[in-house]
Write a structure and sequence with these properties.
alpha/beta; Maf protein; seven-stranded mixed sheet; 6 helices; 23% strand; binds inosinic acid
Length: 193
């Protein structure tokens, strides 16, 4: 049975979420910092999948345990899927909602569909596997809500933004938890009792 796995990020929220998912299987999730390694691989891929593998393989080369990495972003239909893999670099930190609202200012109500996407790549030396999750929604006209991060204040599900949901509500529908569920089932199958 597997007892340790690394998540290729030091992001505290992602680490906590992964721990909640894997602790029932008795699997400890460690961050690069906790394992005493560091790397800052360039995300040169043109897809979420490529970037997730770049991060997972980079960290797997540094440690003696399986590693998984995620890559995510928002894809807006009226912008031909942009910002996509460039979501984190689309605008200066904290200005991503204003930038997207500006780029969408002439887009009519019926054409404001978008989705969040997440791909998790898993690498253990013998096997590589990846899992995706999607969360469909629409882009609003103004920022609302203070929870979440990134594009959540303008990402609508029904009449509420993702930033108006509790973390639990967001987790139950999010692209990241959908991809994590895929990874969880895979790990359970591969390493389970
Ligand atoms: P990364 O995969 O952690 O590098 O995230 C990529 C970028 O996509 C983030 O910086 C956010 O701008 C955006 N993003 C990804 N997931 C979410 C989400 O759940 N809410 C809001 N923004 C997100």
């Amino acid at each position: 049975m597997l007892n340790k796995i690394m998540i290729a990020t030091n992001n505290a929220n992602k680490l906590r979420e992964a721990r909640e998912i894997f602790s029932p299987l008795g699997i400890e999730v460690v961050s690069p910092r906790e394992a005493g390694v560091s790397a800052d691989p360039e995300e040169t891929g043109t897809t979420f999948r490529e970037n997730a593998y770049i991060k997972a393989r980079t960290f797997h080369a540094l440690v003696d345990m399986p590693v998984f990495a995620d890559d995510s972003g928002i894809c807006v239909d009226a912008l031909d899927g942009r910002p996509g893999v460039y979501s984190a670099r689309y605008a200066p930190d904290g200005n991503e909602c204003e930038k997207l609202l500006g780029d969408m200012k002439d887009v009519p109500e019926g054409k404001r569909t978008a989705h969040y996407a997440c791909v998790i790549a898993f690498v253990d030396g013998d096997t590589e596997a990846d899992f995706s999750g999607i969360c469909e929604g629409r882009i609003g006209y103004e920022k609302r809500g203070t929870n979440g991060f990134g594009y959540d204040p303008i990402f609508l599900r029904g009449d509420r933004t993702m930033a108006e949901m509790t973390p639990e509500e967001k987790n139950s529908i999010s692209h990241r938890s959908a991809a994590m569920k895929g990874l969880y089932e895979f790990i359970k199958e591969r390493y389970g009792e």
